[in-house]
Amino acid sequence: MLQVKPFILGNLTGTVYDFPQNGDVLPMHQHSEADVHITVVARGSLKAHGNGWAREVKAGDVIDWQPHDPHEFVALEDNSRIVNIIKG
User: Fold this and answer.
1) DSSP string spanning the chain?
2) pLDDT by residue for the chain (88 residues), tens digit each?
3) pTM
4) Backbone angles phi, psi at 73, to 5 degrees
5) How far apart are CA 19 and CA 13, in angstroms?
6) Rounded CA gap, 37 and 25, in Å?
7) Furthest-apart CA atoms within the chain: distance in Å
8) Alpha carbon distance 88, 52 (integer Å)
């Protein structure tokens, strides 16, 4: 089951998402201008997809989201992790 841990480090805020098992999902969602973020894949691999696009991402990849861009993540291997850092 997906594990969610918000964090604050000085001026940085965000959330760590741990995907313990292959197939764990962070459901489709989107962000406003106030909470749009970048995603850093910290370990493992995942499928990121949205309206009309899909991409496999792995440890070290970074995605720079735009406001109102729907997206979902599905773990492709056990113990995958992403870190979202709010841009604002």
Assistant:
1) --EEEEEEETTEEEEEEEE-STT-EEEEE---TTT-EEEEEEESEEEEEETTEEEEEETT-EEE--TT--EEEEESSTTEEEEEEE--
2) 999 999 999 999 999 999 999 999 999 999 999 999 999 999 999 999 999 999 999 999 999 999 999 999 999 999 999 999 999 7
3) 0.93
4) -125, 140
5) 20
6) 18
7) 37
8) 27
